[in-house]
Amino acid sequence: MGAGRPRGEDEALSGSELKRRAKAGVFIVSTRGLVILLLGFAGNVVVARLLDPHDFGVVAIGMSFVLFAGLVSDGGLGAGLIRREEPPTREELGALSALQLGVTLAMAAFAAALAVPLGRIAWVTAVMVASMPLVALQFPGRILLERSLRYRRLVAVEMSQVLCYQGWAIGTVAAGFGVWGLATATVVRALTGAVVMAFVCPAGLVRPLPMFRLIRPLVGFGLRFQAVNATWLLRDQVLNVCVASFGGVAQLGLWALAKRLMEVPYLILQSLWRVSFPTMSRLAGDEVRTTRLVQQALDITSVGMGFVLTTLAGSAPGLVPGLFGPQWRDAAAVVPGACLGLAVGGTVSVATQGYLYALGDARTVLRASLLQAVTWFAVTLPLLVPLGVASVGLGWFAAAVVEALVLGRATTRRIPVRLFRPLLAPVLVGTGSAAVGWAVSARGGTLWSGLAGGGCSAVLFAVGMTVADRRLVRRTCGFAASSVRAALSRPRREDGG
């Protein structure tokens, strides 16, 4: 097991066991995301009836600082330990924990010091930032569980946090504590995660060990890895500001709603992204298996996501006003471009991003993210006034194509995979199917016409893809079914997950 290695958390996995855990992880993580989305929506509905918009704005300010603190404290060092072939030692995990704990404690102290002269909003922010040291305690356990693809245990931690957060937030706000209920719920969520992690991870909570030299080799990859996340975060904030500045606050509202609508397919892609990184890291030294896995990921994702995105795009003209009211009708104009962007960029990134990270090539992913952001702005801003919010969807599509080209080129230089030809049939069939569904949905502009348009698109896509490549459709359905079976099957005794 190796000196200093955390007990029972990084065993070698056979090919069949790795495949089983990866398949189970796709279903578990995507289902977890959907449940958390629904719980969050329900909790927001309840709390929104008890608070005014100003209080929500105060919490939004605090959450922005929490996201920033998390971005800085992680530093991408955990990803460096996940991708490494050699398992991390307890001393390395302790050094990482000490660094993150020190950074988050300093941030919490700084936020509290600023709150003294600045008043209520700053104090709410300080309370929320005070949750970050508790989050830092969870990182070693998360690294070990991600490396071994034990997603049942990770989901147990995450679901416990969400349930405790919602219970505390609703209870305290209803009891009259107002915005302080939401602020302290952030601390309760982090504390719950630390406690549950101590139980589900055999290594427990790793004792912080201030020995930075042990993790210094991870800094280069970690900074580039985290720069990708920072680019995405900054891109979204700047895009919001630009849409409001050039198109008005109403256009920003339409974009915000459309983005919420796109969260459903995005959840599926996020589950695939999350699972692909540790899976690819386990196979980085086996070029044959890696090549086969990258190709399979692209083929299956192109059909599976094509079905979801085509259905969503075809239903949008009726679904949006039917669910949210006629005042939101124009938000549907974002959906076609956004869906086409995810069909191309999302599919290619699922197949390639985890592979490049596993090789340590975070530089290419960062370059792709930067070019994606620049392209998005370059296409959206000039078209925002003449086309309205639809320009954001067009920008999304153009940015996704640029990202796919950069990631695809870097991947095909290393392994012999076909990344763009397999996309041709799903994209063409999906575009035609979505156009027919859009026409059906727009004719009535109601929820029922939206459902009819989405159903029409789904049937046409399924039939079209079956004619184009029946074997690939069968493989995609088989993968989905095996993912469900793997997730619902009883874990092996040694897995414990």
Description:
- The protein is mainly alpha-helical.
- The chain has helices at 15-48, 53-74, 77-83, 90-118, 120-129, 132-136, 139-147, 151-177, 179-200, 219-247, 249-261, 263-283, 287-324, 335-358, 362-387, 390-412, 421-444, 447-468, 470-488.
- Helix 2 (53-74) packs antiparallel against helix 4 (90-118) and helix 13 (287-324) packs parallel to helix 17 (421-444).
- It starts with 14 loop residues before the first helix and ends in a 9-residue tail after the last helix.
Core attributes:
19 helices, 0% strand, disordered C terminus
Topology, pairings included?
Elements: H1 15-48, H2 53-74, H3 77-83, H4 90-118, H5 120-129, H6 132-136, H7 139-147, H8 151-177, H9 179-200, H10 219-247, H11 249-261, H12 263-283, H13 287-324, H14 335-358, H15 362-387, H16 390-412, H17 421-444, H18 447-468, H19 470-488
Helix pairs in contact: 1-8, 1-12, 1-19, 2-4, 2-5, 3-7, 3-10, 4-5, 5-9, 8-9, 10-11, 10-15, 12-13, 12-14, 13-14, 13-17, 13-18, 13-19, 14-16, 14-17, 15-16, 17-18, 18-19
Brief synopsis:
The protein is an all-alpha fold. The protein is 81% helix and 0% strand. The protein is built from 19 helices and no strands.
Rg from alpha-carbon coordinates? 23 Å
Helix share bin: over 70%
Number of strands: 0
| Largest sheet data | none
Q: Give, in order, the helices and strands.
A: HHHHHHHHHHHHHHHHHHH
Report the end-to-end length measured between terminal Cα atoms.
19 Å
Beta fraction: under 5%
Chain-averaged pLDDT: 83
Number of helices: 19
Global outline: globular
Runs with pLDDT <50, length 5+? 493-497
The structure class reads mainly alpha
